[in-house]
Write a structure and sequence with these properties.
single chain, about 750 residues, alpha/beta, Nucleotidyltransferase, domain 5, Rossmann fold, 8-stranded mixed β-sheet, 5-stranded mixed β-sheet, 13 strands, globular
């Protein structure tokens, strides 16, 4: 009896909810107010309620126009936290969620959607929006996890790995729960179709609920329509037939085509026709591109190419760059399948050119950019390089083209890392190999690794006889042995790595070559090449060593001034940081070597404002030396430099360097900082700052070294560079040779990394 009563109560509540939804749908059709919720007027004053309603109306229009910042300003400029009308409050939270989602601030959006639901917003749209945001976060966190661990060059923190996996599982669980709630509401609306006439917005929301559910359900993995409930397919088909022509309908048709695979082609053709009838060229390009992908997937390459070309035409005429680069990319892949090398290469180059155009138009730093770069940008560069490098006979012209494309990839990678387009200036600067240099380029393509040796007179291309996974493991084991600092087991692995990377080129390195410059890709960026061992000598005993992003190979720039700006932090003010007692003597020794030309600041004088002031002065410093704690990781927002008064991330540090009015810094030194911590993107921090601000070279550390030892080798470097007048690469080499002659362990002398 109790159960029967409970069922009756539940049915009553559901019926009240349905009637509420009907009332809301009808209220949305009123011209004066889209949120006239008069049942709650008694809770607050009419004026306060009207203000909230007007704010919602305005924010709706701003969100529809993608003006998310303005929408947030509207919703937050008035304090509605004391609003007693829970429904209006919940809609304010939902619109804040939409706005932050539009700005790609997904965790903030998630919190507002949850607040909306906590305020009794049980609408289908809110659960759909919540699910959509959760799906985005799952995508981002999976790519971040892959970035942090699949390509990690340091020992993996198993606890951190477990935490990240739990976070992904939590998001997936939340998404399934939200999607299930949306699906239940959608089914309820459909089951009561006779009582309530579903509006267009209802039907659109119901469609999205079904699509999101299948994206998250195991049944979607089977990719076979026979496993989908027939009544649900029939219901969605009926809904699609009832919907008016709109951009949303085109997106729904394309998304549903990936679920109802038996009718994919019919759904895609219908989407294309609707887009054509609406003369909306952005969705027309999108629909044609989807048709091109469909025909490519089933092997009808000619038809796929026809639709790809149509997409290009529509996109070019309407400046729809996102669809344009994807259409070029798809055309390149199709031409490659057809063994049309020439046309494939042209299409790839057009895709890259379009991506460059996108970067010029808009670039904003966000995690989503990392996802887009790894999934949608880097593969284009990799595919075109692979197309050229795997030719039966690679010419000098081919190598120059590969290097040019590879440099373009570096520009894009730096833009992605720092979140701006300022690196476009690098393209106007040539990088010229010096006559006594040999430059090694390493390029990782999927699981294959290629090395290119380039000098002024010759080149050589070599594919490593080891895949990326095996090399990862070798380098991780090598690093673990090196970091112990008291055993010599790493030497056997240094010998193995030498045989992989250097031995195939030994006979190609002429006697006049004095310096090896390494432009590395991926995990190889974090390898201190000086430690490679040929069985008798370390690599640095035979040549000077430098790293580079490939934009500059000059290690002996003539200085217009010898002034140095030194900041040191031996006693941090902020708790949690150890003292660096060697910093005091390091600063005094360097300052003395440079004959007191410049300025020095220690501890409480080492403030952010003082640093800014010096860069704004007309002192024209050629060297900026910072002896302090710091760490450069794969995330620029988590990479930092410690000043006396506060810690700043490298994006803030980069902004400060932009204040340098002389723009003539020859060397930036970060002593006591880890500049290559984490995965393959970590080195982009220090190297990228130098490239962005025209700094000729930087000196950082692969790992932390005992304070006193670091001080000694830094002093030796300055001595050989400024007193003995060696170039920077040979000055570092000579400092390292001094330690090798004393049988010192490489953990002590190999940490410093010169980037030119």
């Amino acid at each position: 009896m109790k159960i029967k009563s409970l069922i009756i109560i539940v049915n009553i509540i559901l019926r009240l909810f349905i009637l509420q939804q009907k009332a809301l749908c009808q209220s949305e059709q009123k011209p004066k107010s889209s949120y006239d919720h008069t049942n709650h007027v008694d809770d607050i004053s009419d004026q306060y309620l009207k203000l909230a309603q007007n704010t919602l109306n305005v924010s709706d229009k701003l969100i529809a126009s993608s003006k998310y910042d303005l929408a947030i300003n509207q919703l937050r400029k008035n304090n509605f936290s004391y609003l007693k009308d829970e429904y209006i409050k919940s809609k304010i939270f939902e619109n804040l969620g939409k706005s932050y989602h539009g700005l790609q601030k997904y965790y903030v959006a998630l919190s507002y959607y949850q607040k909306s639901i906590d305020s009794y917003n049980l609408s289908l749209s809110c659960f759909n929006n919540l699910t959509h945001t959760l799906l985005k976060l799952i995508e981002i966190e999976k790519v971040n996890f892959q970035n942090m661990y699949a390509n990690n060059y340091t020992n993996i923190n198993e606890e951190e790995k477990r935490r990240k996996l739990q976070q992904i599982k939590k998001l997936e669980k939340q998404a399934k729960h939200s999607s299930k709630n949306a699906l239940d509401i959608a089914k309820n609306l459909r089951n009561n179709d006779n009582e309530i006439q579903n509006t267009q917005n209802d039907l659109l929301s119901i469609s999205y609920a079904y699509i999101n559910w299948y994206k998250l359900s195991d049944i979607n993995l089977i990719k076979h329509t026979n496993n989908l409930p027939h009544n649900q397919i029939k219901d969605i088909t009926n809904i699609l037939n009832k919907l008016n022509h709109s951009k949303q309908l085109v997106y729904i048709l394309i998304n549903w085509s990936k679920v109802d695979t038996d009718n994919s082609l019919l759904l895609l053709i219908k989407a294309e026709k609707i887009a054509e009838s609406m003369k909306d060229y952005s969705i027309l390009a999108y629909s044609k591109l989807e048709l091109a992908s469909y025909y490519n997937n089933i092997g009808d390459l000619d038809t796929a190419l026809k639709y790809a070309h149509q997409t290009q035409l529509v996109s070019q005429n309407s400046f729809i760059y996102d669809s344009l680069y994807k259409a070029y990319w798809l055309s390149a892949q199709i031409y490659h399948k057809q063994n049309n090398f020439e046309f494939s290469l042209i299409a790839y180059e057009n895709a890259i050119s379009t991506l460059n155009q996108i970067n010029k138009i808009k670039y904003s730093g966000d995690y989503q950019l990392s996802v887009d770069f790894k999934l949608k940008v880097r593969p284009i560069y990799e595919e075109v390089i692979k197309l050229i490098i795997k030719k039966k006979k690679v010419t000098d012209e081919d190598v120059n083209k590969i290097i040019s494309i590879y440099n373009n990839l570096k520009y894009s990678e730096l833009q992605n890392f720092f979140g701006d387009e300022c690196f476009e200036l690098l393209k106007s600067k040539g990088s010229y190999i010096q006559k006594d240099q040999a430059v090694f380029y390493s390029i990782i393509l999927d699981n294959e690794i290629y090395l290119i040796l380039k000098t002024l007179t010759k080149f050589k291309v070599h594919k490593l006889p080891i895949d990326k996974t095996a090399l990862d493991n070798l380098l991780l084991n090598w690093q673990a042995n090196l970091n112990t600092g008291f055993n010599w087991e790493f030497q056997a692995q240094s010998f193995e790595i030498y045989n992989l990377l250097i031995l195939p080129f030994e006979t190609d390195i002429d006697a006049n070559i004095k310096t090896l410059v390494f432009v590395h890709d991926g995990i190889l960026r974090n390898l201190p090449m000086a430690t490679l061992f040929d069985g008798e000598k370390y690599l640095v005993e035979r040549w000077a060593i430098a790293s580079s992003l490939g934009f500059n190979f000059n290690v002996s720039k003539k200085l217009e001034t010898s002034k140095i700006l030194i900041f040191g932090l031996s006693q941090p003010k902020i708790e949690g940081w150890s003292d660096l007692p060697g910093v005091n003597s390091e600063i005094e020794a360097i300052y003395s070597l440079l004959k007191n030309e410049g300025k020095k600041y220690l501890n409480e004088e080492f403030t952010v404002n003082k640093f800014k002031q010096e860069l704004l002065s007309d002192n024209n410093y050629s060297v900026v030396h910072l002896a302090t704690h710091g760490s450069f990781s794969n995330d620029p927002k988590k990479s930092f430099i410690l000043f006396y008064d506060r810690k700043i991330n490298i994006l803030q540090f980069s902004d400060i360097l932009s204040n340098n009015i002389n723009n003539g810094i020859d060397l930036l030194v970060l002593s006591a900082c880890e500049t290559s911590k984490g995965n393959e993107r970590a080195l982009l921090g220090l190297a990228g700052i130098a490239a962005k601000h025209g700094i000729s070279s930087t000196l950082g550390s692969f790992w932390l070294v005992e304070d006193e030892k670091q001080k000694e080798i830094i002093e030796k470097f300055y001595y050989y560079w400024r007193v003995k007048k060696m170039d920077k690469a040979n000055a570092l080499r000579k400092a390292q040779l001094d330690y090798i002659s004393q049988f010192s362990h490489p953990k002590v002398w190999a940490a410093l990394n010169l980037i030119i």
